[in-house]
Amino acid sequence: MLVSGPVTLANVTALLEEGRRHLAEGVQTVDLNEVSEMDSALLALLLAWLREAKARDQAIAFANPPQSLRTIARLYGVDRLLPIS
């Protein structure tokens, strides 16, 4: 699954549902390479998808995260929870 464009409070709900559909289809990698803008909503989104995957007993990984995501995750102390490649 490829996430592209902005990921902010304005569109995170739609992305959450889209990701849930992809997880139900068996997607295991989310590519963040084309995220153009983000706020803390991206971190919340990834944690929600991670919870959803774990509830399904399914693996998920996040590829090509923006550096700002790594910084926010570290700031909030959840960087070790995210399977980032």
Question: Would you mind describing this structure in some detail?
Answer:
The protein has helices at residues 12-24, 40-55, 67-76; strands at 2-7, 29-38, 61-63. The chain has 85 residues and is α/β, with parallel strands linked by helices. The chain has a single domain (2-81), classed as STAS domain (Transcription Regulator spoIIAA). A three-stranded parallel beta sheet has the order 1-2-3, covered by helices on one side. Helix 1 (12-24) packs parallel to helix 2 (40-55). It is globular, with a radius of gyration of 12 Å. The relative contact order is 0.21. The mean pLDDT is 95.
Shape field: globular
Mean pLDDT level: 95
Q: Examine the secondary-structure arrangement and name the CATH architecture.
A: 2-Layer Sandwich
Secondary-structure element pattern, one letter each: EHEHEH
Beta strand %: 15-25%
Query: What is the helical fraction, as a range of percent?
Result: 40-55%
Computed structural class: alpha/beta
Tell me the radius of gyration: 12 Å
